[in-house]
Specification:
- The complex is a heterotrimer of chains A (about 475), B (about 750) and C (about 220).
- With about 475 residues, chain A is of the alpha+beta class.
- Chain A is built from 13 helices and 24 strands.
- In chain A, strands 13-12-9-10-11-17-23-21 form an eight-stranded antiparallel sheet, sandwiched between helices.
- Chain A is globular and about 60 Å long.
- Chain B is α/β, with parallel strands linked by helices.
- Chain B has three domains: about 70 residues; about 290 residues, 2-enoyl-CoA Hydratase, Chain A, domain 1 (Alpha-Beta Complex), CATH 3.90.226.10; about 220 residues, 2-enoyl-CoA Hydratase, Chain A, domain 1, CATH 3.90.226.10.
- Helix content of chain B is about 45%, strand content about 15%.
- In chain B, the strands form five sheets. Chain B has a seven-stranded mixed sheet. A seven-stranded mixed sheet of chain B has the order 12-13-14-15-16-18-20.
- In chain B, α1 runs parallel beside α3 and α6 packs parallel to α7.
- Classes of the chains: A alpha+beta (about 475), B alpha/beta (about 750), C alpha+beta (about 220).
- Chains in contact: A-B, A-C, B-C.
């Protein structure tokens, strides 16, 4: 029987999955909501269904059955890391293949406390702090004191602590404590906040790692016990609400100076990531996120059990038996139970790739997302440039207000960092995005912000 | 003379109308007789004296013979009609004719917090030989009024029952006996503060240990409303009264599964018979102590002979209650002596001393504990009973020693230590900290301040899959319209979500087994008294089959499970009312199991938990035998709580009526899950009684909390955690309250 | 004042000529249409009862993932353009299944006419809205038609792209809040009316208009 994939996502990732399916010779069906009817993924697909919400699993599964799909690709965001969805997909009366890791892996690796505990047991470094939720002040104070002392003994003077709601995330339910005297009131405040917002009062206390680099490891596993990595990415440049804006592969700039041996650090975090992947029999693409301090200390922060937005920059620098790799295709292949047909030795890395996220947002006003209509969208094609977008270039496009106003991803390749950077700037100076807001004002994007950040790149790293 | 005759004819007319009302128009051609009498009454002055005199004599004889005939064929439903008839005597008539003087307390007529409840200080006179003795008593009862609307037919409002309780306490302070008079079709079923159910529960809880002799007289004993002032040392009942768990109309509506409107007449009559609500039935069941006989077709306002008898019986009953606390010898002598309505042979002083008060309460406890025990269906095995008995006895002995003797000393020492430490820590706070630091320096390690305390872990619960979860389909949350909840996949809903909508927190109903498997520690639940079975003591027609079906479907023998279990290592005794078995209604078996469980908790000094999966009230098919589980179980609760027990009730789903108005509602700590509908009567009964519609959320847990009925609303997903915290927070060191 | 008596007459005439509003009933999500509970021309009613506790008339049954959902009328009216061809077919989300021709009530006519008589704040984005807390608390105390607003005052909060954005009142003059067109926390399409304001000096005149409508229009 021919496989047929339901693409349970929108925007550029839907397009990339469509492309991967086509390449693999697999059928696909897309879904869309009313706001997205002009989006490219809808225009380019033959079989499509209008649904109420990308997050409505019932609609997705009803369409999958109606369209006789055999698998579901969740993309990123929406339901991609919802283990209940993954579980239902495989456990329902008419089971489907979930293109992603097992639901158990999504659940356990997605649970930050569980991950932290497990990593500790496996000897993988994590940010120092508690691994069990704390519910009362006295215990919190004791734990904080303990943590404070142990950090001091490690030579970190006057460390700051973070009080975090277990159920929080994305900068919500988190506060810094600079002095132990502040701990109780802060704890009380966050606990009350967590109870109100998440209904769960559990709190953890962690050391605050002051300046850091955000490096991630791209992992791929198959159902046959094969595990490989596709190097690292640097995702340090983010918006104020911790959303990535520029990513670079590889994660360390070998030409830049570090206060530590960056090759050794990279090798270590890759090995630790693989260790955890093997422990879980991880059988899909996944990203292991690490924090690296200027001194070269590294801590595992979280695991993203899905394909990442920035997966393609890793693909651009990775060559399997000297051939370009496509991670989405690899992800689909392994989900259908295929073997990798290569091992780590067959993978070589060459060059540097940068991803720029073009977003309709006002970086001057706290990265305020903007809605409006795009009237002109144009760039000069280059051999070193790949642009991923769902925004049509031949007709005006209205940005839906329910989603993040992402417009396009630009993936730029260079033989080395300087070249990639130069080309990135070239692209940013070339691209034209014009449009207007509902009020009739000119639509702004984050192009200037990206330029500015690019200019600064690696000026501060490792100094 | 003429005037006298005229009045006499009016009386005859009233009697005739009364007969018609009770026995129906066709009974001995009563309608035409009424017409005849009316004719004479209206055209009185057209007839001569001779005719009138003759007419009166003849009619009187005729009516008397009809009354006699009527009495012979009296049906239970006719008795109900007698009880409700406007010509029947009311409390007002009793106050005027039985007592020698009285003063109404807390309101008069309409100017009253609740005109359906009358409280009065009254004097009752006893004649011994030529001497007159005056006894002061507190009279508390329902006033139906003779057609007075504002009396609500004797349906006490919650604050009316509160008033009753207040004057009970006053009588207790003054040390005078209380005479309760029950003339109620049922309590007024509204939840306004203090709430119908809770106030009845409070009354029962208090009456259980009222330190004065109490005598109740029942004319119309309508369910929970009757119990609110019915837990007495002696229960008298009018021969033409009824005492029932529910009105025949109410029972018929339930039997016919009616949502609206009136049930058919035949069914009502059938239910009146099936409910066994007459005085004779109740005496046989042992739910009352004595019947006060009445004239044919019942006593009416002017039956002075009846009032004389009632007065005598009230004094006699009070005497007996008092004497039971004193000397058995004298009691026997008193009982054997021939006394009549005019003269007493003895004078009995109704004041009790402290010892006698204790005996009084003990007698009361024994009386109610024994009541209806004959109806308990339990496989008899003398050996087993003996084992159980001796086991309980030894347990009791062991725990008595452990807690009563040792604990007292230990406790006072503990108290001293506590005081010392709290005081010293207050005094030395600034000093102690550096001390700790110095200590740390020397020892190099922290002083462990944490005490080994019970903790809760998830792994301790047995993995359990609800049978509801085994279906690949989705359901819609009933609140979806309001909160936009997505449809929920059934395996998720009844698995991980604990039957709770993850979006809005709506609680779907779950089977009782879920609770047993998700609240308590793994393999810690041990049920006991499983063999006590619900029976059909009234031989209610068609009920035995339904009972059998319930037993087969659930594999249970009654609606109440009693078991021992642990939560986070804390051992407790628990009961659970199971909705799957006859809607969790309470009858003899359930009451008995409840009492035995709470007694076990008492002698083993463990916390006691009542989980209400659902309760539809007292099981109507067991009549008053079910109804008296209200006072019975409440007494056991009072006993347990007074002994220092920690009693926690957790409600879910539908928790209504009798149990809530007694042994559940009297718990000091009551909590409700979000999905609970909690109250006295459901919307249909409220509409029937009050003529008012209630808002859909009238019985919601939120409103119950607002009204002060419960202490908190819990989420089912956190039930285990919440219970654990509650036990730790409210229980003492040994998890026994106080 | 934007509205003249003549205009008012015209508008009333227009409503009288066609005193209906058409409400399309869409599928909330995908699924199979299993059964129609109404026929063309049937009269249906929206939720009723003192607490709106009685649900609206059943319209059709939509089944998805073995869950049969009865879709009910949210408003009174007459069924038209019933898509009986869809019976037992798979339908996408937001497909129009039928229309309810709803006779306008006096209250609805007033709100429609006020739309052209008042100064209206429209939704700048398709988003969810709530009144600003300050305005909401004043409204609770004083009531509609009494609350004064000043230029630059925060009147609404828009929840949009996961953020909260305040909306300010931008007119000079003495305005009072006269009408609220939206339901808090519900999605409002762009350019739909949110709030209606009236200049204080025009209040008596507005009252006259309403009296006039009430005179001309009685509910049937």
């Amino acid at each position: 029987m021919k496989e047929r994939v339901l693409i349970a996502n929108r925007g550029e990732i839907a397009l990339r999955i469509m492309e991967a399916c086509k390449d693999l010779g697999i059928d696909y069906v897309v879904v869309y909501t009313k706001e997205d009817q002009d989006s490219l993924h809808v225009r380019l697909a033959e079989k499509k269904y209008r649904i109420s919400d990308y997050k409505d699993m019932n609609d997705l599964l009803a369409v999958a059955d109606e369209a006789k799909c055999t698998a579901i690709h969740p993309g990123y965001g929406f339901l991609s890391e919802n283990y209940r969805f993954a579980r239902r997909v495989v456990k329902r009366g008419r089971p489907l293949i979930f293109i992603g890791p097992s639901w158990e892996a999504i659940r356990d690796l997605g649970n930050k406390l569980f991950l932290k505990k497990l990593a500790k047991d496996l000897g993988i470094p994590v940010i120092p702090g508690t691994t069990e939720p704390i519910y009362n002040e006295i215990e919190a104070e004791l734990k904080a004191e303990e943590l404070y002392e142990s950090l001091n003994s490690e030579g970190i003077n006057n460390p700051s602590l973070l009080v975090k709601a277990v159920a929080g995330g994305g900068g919500m339910g988190i506060a810094e404590v600079k002095d132990l005297e502040e701990l109780r009131p802060t704890f009380r405040k966050i606990k009350a906040y967590a109870k109100r917002l998440f209904g769960d009062e559990g709190i953890i206390i962690e050391a605050k790692i002051p300046t850091l680099q955000h490096i991630e490891v791209q992992i791929l596993g198959s159902k046959h016990g094969e595990y490989v990595h596709f190097g690292t990415r640097n995702c340090t440049i983010q918006s104020i609400s911790k959303q990535k804006r520029i990513e670079i592969a590889p994660g360390f700039n070998k030409e830049s100076k570090y206060a530590f041996d960056c090759r050794e650090a990279e090798a270590n975090i890759i090995n630790y990531s693989l260790k955890l992947a093997k422990y879980f029999k991880y059988d899909s693409v996944g990203t292991w996120e690490w924090l690296i301090t200027p001194e070269g200390k590294y801590f595992l922060m979280e695991v993203n059990t899905r394909i990442q937005v920035e997966n393609e920059i890793s693909a651009k620098i990775s060559f399997v038996k000297n051939k370009q790799v496509n991670l989405i295709k690899e992800q689909i292949r392994v989900a259908f139970g295929e073997k990798l047909k290569y091992s780590q030795e067959d993978i070589t890395f060459k060059g540097v790739s940068i991803e720029l996220r073009l977003i309709a947002e006002d970086t001057q006003r706290g990265f305020l997302p903007l809605s409006g209509t795009i009237t002109r969208f144009k760039w000069t094609p280059k051999p070193w440039l790949t642009v991923r977008t769902h925004v049509p270039q031949d007709q005006p496009y209205t940005i839906p207000t329910q989603f993040d106003p992402n417009l396009a991803l630009a993936i730029i390749y260079g033989n080395n960092f300087e070249e990639a950077k130069k080309r990135s700037l070239e692209f940013l100076n070339d691209i034209i995005i014009e449009g207007y807001t509902p009020k009739g004002e000119k639509l702004v994007t984050n192009i200037e912000f990206l330029k500015e950040k690019l200019e600064q790149l690696y000026q501060f790293v490792g100094s | 003379m003429k005037l006298e005759w005229h009045r006499k004819i009016k009386d005859l007319l009233d009697t005739a109308v009364y007969i018609k009302d009770i026995k129906g128009e066709k009974f001995f051609n009563i309608s035409s007789l009424i017409e005849e009498i009316s004719q004479v009454y209206e055209n009185f002055y057209q007839y001569d004296s001779k005719f009138i005199e003759n007419f009166i004599l003849q009619t009187e004889n005729r009516l008397n013979s009809i009354l006699e005939e009527g009495e012979k064929s009296l049906t239970p439903y006719e008795i109900v009609k007698i009880t409700r008839h406007p010509q029947r005597f009311t409390l007002q008539d009793i106050l005027e004719n039985v007592y020698d003087s009285y003063m109404e307390l807390g309101g008069e007529e309409e100017l009253n917090i609740d005109p359906a409840i009358v409280c009065a200080k009254a004097m009752i006179v006893r004649k011994v030989g030529n001497d007159l003795y005056f006894h002061q008593v507190m009279v508390i009862g329902h006033e139906k009024g003779h057609g007075e609307e504002f009396r609500q037919g004797g349906s006490a409002k919650p604050w009316g029952n509160e008033k009753a309780l207040r004057y009970m306490k006053m009588a207790e302070t003054e040390g005078i006996p209380i005479h309760f008079f029950i003339f109620t079709p049922g309590a007024y079923p509204i939840e306004d503060y203090p709430g119908a159910a809770q106030q009845i529960a409070r009354n029962l809880y208090y009456m259980a240990k009222l330190k004065v002799p109490t005598v109740a007289f029942i004319s119309e004993g309508g369910s929970g409303g009757a119990e609110a002032i019915g837990l007495a040392d002696m229960r008298l009942m009018a021969e033409k009264g009824y005492y029932s768990v529910i009105s025949p109309e109410g029972a018929a509506a339930i039997e016919a599964k009616l949502k609206e409107g009136r049930p058919p007449r035949e069914l009502v009559e059938k239910c009146a018979k099936a409910l066994k609500l007459t005085a004779k039935d109740n005496l046989e069941f042992g739910t009352i102590d004595r019947i006060i006989s009445e004239p044919p077709l019942g006593a009416r306002r002017k039956d002075y002979e009846f009032f004389r008898k009632l007065k005598f019986e009230l004094i006699r009953a009070t005497d007996e209650v008092v004497l039971q606390t004193r000397s058995l010898k004298f009691l026997r002598k008193y009982a054997l002596s021939k006394q009549d309505t005019e003269d007493f042979k003895f004078y009995v002083n109704w004041d009790l001393d402290e010892d006698e008060k204790e005996i009084l309460i003990e007698n009361r406890y024994k009386k109610y504990k024994k009541m209806a025990q004959w109806a308990v269906c339990e496989p008899k095995s003398t050996f087993k009973t003996f084992i159980n008995f001796s086991h309980n006895l030894s347990l009791k002995f062991k725990n008595e020693i452990k807690y009563k003797i040792l604990k007292a000393g230990h406790r006072s020492f503990k108290k001293f230590i506590d005081e010392l430490t709290t005081e010293s820590s207050l005094l030395f706070k600034p000093v102690s900290d550096p001390v700790k630091t110095v200590y740390n320096l020397i020892v190099g390690k922290k002083v462990k301040t944490k005490l080994p305390a019970p903790t809760l872990t998830e792994e301790e619960i047995s993995p359990y899959t609800s049978p509801l979860a085994l279906e690949d389909r989705t359901v819609t949350c009933p609140e979806a319209e309001k909160y936009g909840c997505p449809d929920i996949w059934v395996p998720d809903l009844y698995g991980e979500f604990c039957g709770v909508c993850p979006n809005c927190g709506y609680h779907f109903p779950l089977e009782y087994k879920w609770y047993l498997n998700n609240i308590f520690d793994k393999n810690s639940v041990r049920t006991f008294n499983d063999n006590i079975a619900s029976g059909n003591p009234l031989e209610f027609e068609g009920y035995a089959e339904r009972l059998k079906a319930a037993r087969k479907r659930t594999g249970l023998k009654s609606a109440l499970l009693s078991f021992e279990a642990k939560i986070g290592g804390i051992s407790l005794v628990a009961v659970m009312l199971v909705g799957e078995f006859r809607q969790g209604t309470v009858g003899v078996a359930e009451g008995e199991k409840f009492i035995r469980a709470i007694e076990l908790a008492k002698i083993t000094r463990r916390p006691f938990l009542a989980l209400v999966h659902t309760t539809g009230g007292i099981r109507i098919h067991e009549g008053t035998l079910g109804l008296i589980q209200m006072p019975r179980c409440t007494m056991a609760v009072r006993d347990y709580v007074d002994a220092g027990g920690l009693y926690i009730v957790v409600y879910d789903n539908n928790s209504y009526a009798g149990p809530v108005a007694s042994f559940l509602g009297s718990a000091p700590y009551q909590f409700a899950l979000k999905s609970t509908r909690l109250g006295f009567a459901g919307p249909r009964v409220i509409r029937e009684t009050t003529g008012q519609d209630v808002p859909p959320d009238y019985h919601s847990a939120k409103n119950a909390l607002k009204r002060g009925h419960i202490q908190g609303i819990w989420d089912r997903r956190e039930l285990r955690k919440k219970l654990f915290t509650a036990l730790l927070t409210m229980g003492g060191k040994n998890l026994y309250y106080r | 004042m934007k509205i003249e008596y003549q205009n008012l007459n015209l508008m009333l005439q227009k409503f009288k000529a066609n005193p209906y509003k058409i409400y399309p009933v869409l599928t909330p999500h995908t699924g199979y249409i299993k059964e129609f509970k109404v026929k063309e021309g049937d009269t249906v009613r929206g939720p009723s009862g003192k607490w709106l506790e009685k649900p609206g008339s059943p319209l059709f049954v939509l089944e998805r993932e073995k869950n049969q959902k009865i879709i009910r009328a949210k408003i009174n009216g007459i069924v038209q353009n019933l898509r009986t061809d869809l019976l037992n077919k798979f339908v996408e989300a937001e497909e129009t299944i039928l229309e309810i021709k709803h006779p306008l009530s006096q209250k609805e006519i007033i709100s429609e006419i006020l739309l052209s008589a008042l100064y209206i704040i429209k939704a700048p984005e398709t988003a969810r809205y709530i009144l600003s807390p300050a305005l909401a608390s004043r409204l609770e105390k004083q009531g509609l038609g009494k609350v004064k607003v000043k230029k630059g005052e925060e009147v609404l909060i828009m929840t949009f792209m996961k953020r909260e954005t305040p909306i300010y009142f931008s007119e000079d003059g003495n305005f009072v809040l006269y009408y609220i067109y939206f339901t808090p926390f519900q999605l409002v399409e762009r350019d739909q009316p949110l709030l209606g304001f009236c200049q204080e000096e025009n209040l008596p005149y507005l009252q006259k208009i309403i009296e006039r409508i009430k005179e001309e229009w009685s509910d049937f």
